[in-house]
Amino acid sequence: MKIRTLVLGALVSGAALAATADVASARVVCNSYGDCWRTQQRYDYQPSWGLKIYDDNWRWRDRDRARYRWRDYNRGYYGKGGVWITF
Question: What are phi and psi of 35, to 5 degrees?
């Protein structure tokens, strides 16, 4: 009986971890000017801002190195000319 309880507890714990794993994962956000940054929160980016959101493991291709650059991040997004817009 104890083994069954332990196995059931382990399964429930594993399922809970799997269900919450996506909540803590980071994202990569890039604007149309090539500025990219990481964010760990899901913001409500407006479509008019022209941003693309990728999974944390997204990388640009070697041929696109001149197009993209990493930026620091905070609460907001990079707009035209690399200007940081806070919200």
Answer: -80, 125
Using the Cα atoms of residue 67, residue 69, residue 75 and residue 81 in order, give the sign of their dihedral.
Answer: negative
Under DSSP, the state recorded for 56 is T
Beta bridge partners of residue 35, listed in sequence order = 69
Evaluate if pTM is beyond 0.85: no
Which amino acid does the sequence have at 27? R
Residue 54 CA to residue 72 CA, distance in Å, equals: 16
State the pLDDT confidence band at 41, using cuts at 50, 70 and 90.
confident
d(CA 39, CA 51): 13
Q: Which helix (DSSP H) or strand (DSSP E) does residue 6 occupy?
A: helix 2-20
